[in-house]
Design the sequence.
């Protein structure tokens, strides 16, 4: 058996772990995306955050491949960091590719499997039962996309969902990545660990929705959101954090995890009103913002950045895209400034690459998060970013 780590899925979760583990052991990455694999083999670990010095990459021992028979090299630990998108028909997170890999690994090797992907509650136990194997563990990941590598070095907590003992041994490897002195480590059943992940993200979505509804109220009543939020958040039970209004929550995880949890309540008819209403609160917020912008009666609207957060390198499920679609339906002329988009047209809107041209053409500039690059045209900026964070 090879003492190293095989990581399946070279995304945010997979590559931040690759970078962390590679300082202490051999790391191999398996991904279906040939372009990503080539980049990794050229020394680019795809971690573009300002926190990471890319010159470190070259001295790290990370290789990537698209060939799934790499699994037969029998790495001691295999981390599953694959996408689990929401299946719109079933309402469940899609786990088929994960199950296929687990079957292959269990049948062909003695490797231990650590599932880092977010999965439905009960999924890991169903795999353990299917193979009668103590070689499968679920460990939820809480990193943020715009801060993935620092987050895995300084985790808020570490959770292992497993009834077998190999979690403690695997944790010794994880400890070598961690910079923080004291991190709570919790062991629980796989289903409890899966529940921690879904309830955590649902709580965060609910908190965003709460402060956005407060902001809807303040706008409508012509009151200061800032003053109300400061007053409310000064109570330490509420806290002055994660309370900055936005156009709505988005990104890869909060929308799908909240919908998945709501679906699990629905399946078993478990009483709830709050959890099932978070998604519709978020939808209403986006439509409220579109209406508020439309009321300004300005016809040429520029959208400054469509990513969710300032440092995000993607725009998956970004709330501003819903607003863009609403404005197009209302026949507004909309332009976009977004360096992440290479195409010239996005959702039927012109993408303007030159920031000065964008500023000149836009009579109103809307942005989810304020950026000093548009501070010279602040008088035409529309945002609900009050505190400049989160
Ligand atoms: N992004 C986050 O902030 C975050 C945080 C915590 C947990 N998670 C969870 O972790 C999982 C991974 O998320 P991510 O953001 O890293 O995903 P990602 O989309 O960034 O990366 C997934 C990678 O898997 C690869 N892939 C897809 N199908 C494959 C296959 N059949 N074989 C091999 N590789 C394949 C893709 O090419 C991609 O490189 C998801 O379940 C997500 O919900 C994500």
Sequence:
């Amino acid at each position: 058996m090879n003492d190293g780590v095989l990581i399946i899925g070279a995304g945010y979760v997979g590559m931040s772990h690759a970078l962390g583990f590679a300082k202490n052991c051999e790391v191999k990455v398996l991904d279906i995306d040939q372009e990503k694999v080539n980049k990794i083999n050229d020394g680019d670990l795809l971690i573009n955050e300002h926190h990471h010095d890319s010159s470190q990459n070259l001295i790290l021992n990370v290789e990537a491949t698209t060939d799934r028979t790499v699994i037969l090299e029998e790495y001691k630990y295999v981390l599953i960091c694959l996408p689990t998108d929401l299946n719109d028909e079933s309402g469940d997170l899609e786990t088929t590719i994960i199950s296929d890999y687990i079957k292959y690994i269990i049948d062909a090797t003695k490797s231990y499997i650590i599932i880092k992907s977010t999965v439905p509650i009960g999924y890991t136990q169903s795999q353990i039962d299917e193979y009668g194997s103590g070689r499968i563990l679920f460990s939820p990941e809480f990193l943020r996309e715009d801060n993935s590598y620092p987050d895995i070095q300084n985790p808020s907590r570490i959770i292992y969902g497993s009834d077998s003992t190999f979690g403690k041994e695997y944790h010794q490897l994880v400890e070598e990545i961690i910079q923080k002195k004291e991190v709570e480590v919790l062991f629980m059943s796989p289903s409890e660990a899966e529940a921690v992940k879904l309830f955590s993200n649902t709580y965060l979505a609910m908190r965003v929705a709460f402060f956005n509804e407060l902001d809807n109220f303040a706008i409508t009543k012509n009151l200061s959101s800032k003053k109300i939020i400061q007053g409310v958040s000064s109570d330490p039970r509420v806290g002055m954090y994660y309370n900055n209004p936005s156009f709505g929550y988005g990104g890869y995880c909060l929308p799908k995890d909240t919908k998945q949890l709501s679906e699990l309540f629905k399946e078993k008819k478990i009483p709830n009103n709050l959890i099932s209403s978070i998604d519709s609160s978020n939808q209403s917020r986006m439509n409220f913002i579109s209406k508020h912008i439309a009321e300004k009666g300005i016809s040429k609207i520029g959208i400054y950045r469509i990513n969710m957060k300032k440092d995000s390198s993607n725009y998956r499920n970004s709330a501003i895209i819903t607003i863009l679609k609403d404005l197009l339906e209302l026949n507004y002329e909309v332009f976009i400034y977004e360096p992440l988009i290479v195409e010239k047209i996005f959702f039927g809107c012109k993408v303007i690459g030159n920031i000065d041209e964008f500023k000149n053409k836009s009579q109103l500039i809307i942005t989810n998060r304020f950026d000093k690059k548009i501070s010279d045209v602040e008088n035409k900026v529309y945002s609900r970013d009050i505190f400049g964070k989160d």
About this structure: The pocket of nicotinamide-adenine-dinucleotide is lined by residues 8-14, 30-33, 36, 81-84, 97, 116-118, 141, 143-145, 252-253 (CB under 6 Å). Residues 190-220 form the longest helix (31 residues).
